[in-house]
Amino acid sequence: MRSLFSIQPWAALTAIWLTCQSGFAQTAAELIAKGDAGDRTFNAAEALKSYLPAEKLEPKNVQLLVSIARQYRHLMAKAPITKEKLRLGGLALNYGLKAAALDPKDSDAQLSPAITYGKMLPLQGNQAQVDATPRIKTAVDKALLLNPRNDSAWHVLGRWHQSLANVGSVKRAFGEMFYGELPIGTNAEAIKCFDKAIAINPHRLRHYVELGRTYAQMGDPANARKYLLKGLSMPNTENDDPELKRLGRESLALLH
Fold first, then answer.
1. pLDDT tens digit string along 86-108?
2. CA-atom Rg of the chain in angstroms
3. What interhelical angle do 62-78 and 82-102 show, nearest 10?
4. CB of 55 closer than 8 Å to CB of 64
5. Distance CA 180, CA 169 (A)
6. Around Cβ 82, how many Cβ atoms within 10 Å?
7. Which of 17, 131, 213, 239 gets the most CB atoms within 10 Å of its CB?
8. What does the H/E/C string look like for the chain?
9. For 25-67, what is each residue's pLDDT tens digit?
10. What's this model's pTM, rounded to 2 decimal places?
11. Do residues 41 and 74 touch, judged by C-beta distance below 8 A?
């Protein structure tokens, strides 16, 4: 017969091992909740520490994929060099495209690639910009068809029109000669989009700042100042708000 002295150490070690395993084996829901906490505090790296293991458990969780894409965009914004920004943007885009493919009826999933394309656009070469521009429009149109009250989608569409309206005729003609035809966007359409975004969600400063920047681009300083000051007076509630306010202050300083 084996003595209690030979059995008890193994029993104790087994109990410790089981305790450790139960402590480390978190469910996807628990990991997502921890990731969400990091997301709310704009700590993308911390959020990904939980989101990525959760993805291993639930690789087809569309909202999780959208959240992961958002964290990579946040890291992209803070990256110090263009090469790293594009690498992180590529990761965000892959997760967004996967989410969009998994659920063609989810508005936020369809919008995710459009947001990432837009973030990457200023960092890319002319050909990549021409190729990405219609993809943004296609994705945002899908998002709005699924949910006409998606204020983020109206905002992205407004930025799309605003950016294209700023392409001069000479630059457009030269670009199209070498890289392909660019879609047409107008400041008037951009204003309509930002107005709709504000009507749906008046609590996001991004809508006001970009509306003000559009009026500034049109040469309407009174309305530009009105909406820029409104956006700048609002508290920061989203990861990109400090950068948007910086752009807003730059636009305001250029008004006559």
1. 999 999 999 999 999 999 999 99
2. 23
3. 170
4. yes
5. 14
6. 11
7. 213
8. CCCHHHHHHHHHHHHHHHHHHHHHCCCHHHHHHHHHHHHHCCCHHHHHHHHHHHHHHCCCCHHHHHHHHHHHHHHHHHCCCHHHHHHHHHHHHHHHHHHHHHCCCCHHHHHHHHHHHHHHHHHCCHHHHHHHHHHHHHHHHHHHHHCCCCHHHHHHHHHHHHHHHCCCHHHHHHHHHHHCCCCCCCHHHHHHHHHHHHHHCCCCHHHHHHHHHHHHHHCCHHHHHHHHHHHHHCCCCCCCHHHHHHHHHHHHHCCC
9. 799 999 999 999 999 999 999 999 999 999 999 999 999 999 9
10. 0.86
11. no
Sign of CA dihedral 208, 210, 216, 219: negative
**Residue 173 token pair:** 């003609």
